[in-house]
Amino acid sequence: GQNIDQPTEMTATEGAIVQINCTYQTSGFNGLFWYQQHAGEAPTFLSYNVLDGLEEKGRFSSFLSRSKGYSYLLLKELQMKDSASYLCAVGDDKIIFGKGTRLHILP
Amino acid sequence: EAGVAQSPRYKIIEKRQSVAFWCNPISGHATLYWYQQILGQGPKLLIQFQNNGVVDDSQLPKDRFSAERLKGVDSTLKIQPAKLEDSAVYLCASSLAQHSGNTIYFGEGSWLTVV
Known about the structure:
heterodimer; A: mainly beta; five-stranded antiparallel beta sheet; 58% strand; B: mainly beta
């Protein structure tokens, strides 16, 4: 079977750092995506990891450990506009999404 | 570059009625996806096309849902008859090719409310 787990909600303060974890169990693996989705909008691509390690892109970084079935998205210098849902998605022969983590940013 | 286009943006229908959603993917994208996203959940893949062929429709409720991509470009998703639990956002997405690191680009979605 296929299963993707991520926390339902998280809260952080503007200017701080937050880490959103994702664990997965899938029959195959062709990479892991992170998407950002603001309320009422479509998901937008943030990052893609296929090899173990950290990928950094500005304020956002994504980490993957294939042996542990684990990834995290790290957001630095949080801004109010980062309030959104963050979706972890695993690619096999198709791309399966987790339920998403709603991130609330407090001023 | 134009993004994924979807219509209508919003639709309210009564249960047992029918509805159709249209999608035009990004030009040149061979793979087209329809996802269903219920409020508070992640997108669930309903059907995936590669050009005009179906790659995966294992989670499509075929007794009421149908989809086609006749000329390998735009696509329609139909629900007939609709049930209350079909209330969701229907997201169309496209990618250059089937997944092997190809980013999926989403349209703005078609919001369906069944009353």
